[in-house]
Fold these 3 entries.
Entry 1:
Amino acid sequence: MTSTDMPYSTATASPTGARPDPTAAPAGAATAVDDDTVDPDTAEGIDGADTVTLIEANSTIKNYVIASMALGLVPVPVFDIVAVVATQLKMIHSLTRLYGIRFSENVAKSLILSLIGGVLPVTLGAGFASVLKFVPGLGSFAGGASVSILSGALTYAVGRIFVQHFESGGTLLDFDPSKVRDRFRAEFRKGQTAAQDLEDEVEAAAATQA
């Protein structure tokens, strides 16, 4: 699949796309809307949405999806899962800076774990794949590949849900994981396809660092 087919853009936004501090929003600023009315790809449903910022946000998600997938290939149990969550924290930090939102590591970590915990079968699947890494031969390869895709898909879903929330005018403090679980599952399914399409880039990046 070409970059133009990806569900997020790889374009780089200019610094002028950064959002102002939401605590000092100018008169006439867009009013926050319900997350469910927002299309995170096109920003449809948001008055005055900043397309440049959205492009940069989607590019940020892609970069962290690749990083998460690379971590998922590390042949060490548990480490890959812990490291992926840490990578997701860095992604959220980058997104809050982009949108001019106050970042709290403790709050962000709690929200991420709540999102992932809301799709327990996904988490169990990742853990099972980690165990498979220790099966000699094919089992080791298959396990690593599974964790890599799952890691990328989870990171994709986390990023997309937070971008959608930030685009609607939300912050970390008013984010409610229980209200977006169905959408999170849908984004996770999209993330699996996106991660599979990025496998070549992940392998190339891993080879460069080897």
Entry 2:
Amino acid sequence: MSLPKRDLELLKANRRVKKEDIELAKKIEKEDLHTATDESLLRVRGLIREAGREMHNMKGFVRFKHMGKKLKYGYMKPEHHIGFMISEWFANRFPGVVIVLGNEKESWVSIRTEKGVESEESEDIKSTVEKLADVLGLETEKDFQGLWENYYKSQYADERKNIELFEKNMPAKFRKRARNITENRFYEKTLDELE
């Protein structure tokens, strides 16, 4: 009798989890959690949802840069310990491609092979990408950031500017944690200012 594996992983990934939260989660069923009125069960449910919500948002807000067809890397600074889960999710989505997600302090590297997904934690993203590029014999990235900015420029229309909707769908917290430079720049400036 226990919660599903994914819920337990999300609970353990939450930075605010306590040992007693994990012990309690191992003793209850998912249905008990959804119908709970007890404070401790409500806390467990909240912790799972909090980490799950951040994971969902990070999947949508991470912007990849490419080094050839073998390596994709992107900036991510999650609040919770979900780096591995997200890098493994992208590795499953792009089999045979090395996925590197991280920030100035840590990074997560994953790749899906015939044997399954292999992952490891590494130092900062910059040195990790440099080492992998050297090992894989890859050249520096193409200007995908420029392409992304051109796309944004081509889609911009002042009459469709809706700041409330933008902030609702792309909260500042996640724009900052995923370092969405282009989106932030377009949010703050008009098209005339960008030309």
Entry 3:
Amino acid sequence: MKNLIYIVMFLVPTVFFAQEKPKNVSEETTTKTITVDDGREVVEKKVKVTTKEEQEIKLAEDDKNKVNQEIVASPSKVTQTVEVDNDMDPMYDSKTQSVYYSYNDENFVFKRNKDGFVVSEIGTDVQTDYGHVLNTSRNNNYVFTSSDYNGVGYFDANNNFIVEYYDVNSKSVIKKTFTIAK
């Protein structure tokens, strides 16, 4: 009986940990060091850029019972973190995190700030602010504000950002989905 309890205690956690979905994860870190001589002292400044791409592995339904299955293209989540060190201590002084999305064949970047996110449209040469996403007291619920509309936003199971707002002209609720950039 004692052995049976030990076996069950060992196998139950193993079953729960084995249910994770497989992902391709690649991470690239680039550090640039700049030395500035202002006449009084030489100061070394560092900029560290870490780009992480995560992509869920999805297999073709046609190959369901085969040994070698084809991988189907799936959206990837690209997160870029920029850290700046302005002085000689080993700690970085500031950190900015960005996630890239697309909507209607236009690219957007979500940059985290103290209140939530700033949504910027990525044009050919310039990034322009598109809207602001503010945190609320409820988990995964945000207030989205822009010059065109105001609404409620949330992240779905695929990490897409969805905004719902009331359109006065059509007298209906409009749903816009910012999908993770591929």
